[in-house]
């Protein structure tokens, strides 16, 4: 699976390099003979796209290396570094274009378009549009941030090239030169794209909120196990595209023995990996009261008390021992509220309801939808 993904990334990137190099040659030729700053800057932008594809290939190759003693979870995160380099190249291209365009505004030079130039720019727009759709589609298919970003950038380039074409037509019709001003607009859009790509990659490196769909699917698979009464606290650790490790807590009846729990957790791990690709490195267990009506009443009362607060998003892992007079549960606290204050508030309220009980409350982070 990962091997096929690498081959797809390399193939698409090579196609992107070839197309962008051809566009660089054609646009640079048109820009020089027509003395068009906007067209030359568009050629520079295509050159940065070709370099981005080279970086994407290198990142895919290095990221596909097998795990070893030094990096036991693999090298997948290298792809995020390659995405960061791609973002930096795009940003640099935008800043360079901005500087050159401002120079053109301060010291304007008239452009001289020919019919051949117009035709070449038009063809370049069509080619870039098709390339962008293809690269972005393949990027989404194989979950490659670098490819998806390159595809989006290519579609954006098609729009920007269309603005260059529009300025050329305006010049031919009215004699008004908008070259340098169009160059500024192109530069602004390129800079914006570079910054957005960089922020997205930063989020991947730092660690962002779990994907809601993946989390939902994982919980669904876990709860397909007949004995499992609930799945909570899903945490995913990403080590590159398609390389997800995770942990989960499951709620099981309190009448099971250790052997039963062992068999269930192993089946859960196997099913989750088979259906979602996530490797569960840990499966925690909550015990659920099954044979005591008094425990059910206490659970209901505590649940109403806890969930009466807007910042208490969920209560789970509840268990009470009637004989030993203990109550324990987890509560998911919103990021909008202080967790320590939340726990102190709940301790006071639950203790007031059951003053003779020992109470343990664990605050959970709202890491997944």
How is this structure best described in words?
With 369 residues, the chain is of the alpha/beta class. It folds into two domains: 2-206, Alpha-lytic protease prodomain-like (Up-down Bundle), CATH 1.20.1510; 212-365, Cation efflux protein, cytoplasmic domain (Alpha-Beta Plaits, 2-Layer Sandwich). The protein is 64% helix and 15% strand. The chain is built from ten helices and six strands; from the N terminus they run αααααααββαβαββαβ. It has helices at residues 2-34, 37-63, 78-106, 115-142, 145-174, 179-206, 212-223, 258-276, 293-307, 339-353, and strands spanning 230-238, 244-253, 279-288, 312-321, 326-333, 358-365. The strands form two sheets. Strands 1-2-3 form a three-stranded mixed sheet, covered by helices on one side. Strand 1 (230-238) and strand 2 form a beta hairpin. The longest helix has 33 residues, at 2-34. It is elongated and about 95 Å long. The mean pLDDT is 83.
| Pattern of helices and strands | HHHHHHHEEHEHEEHE
Number of helices: 10
Which structural class is indicated by helix and strand composition? alpha/beta
- Order of strands, main sheet, comes to 1-2-3
Distance between the termini: 28 Å
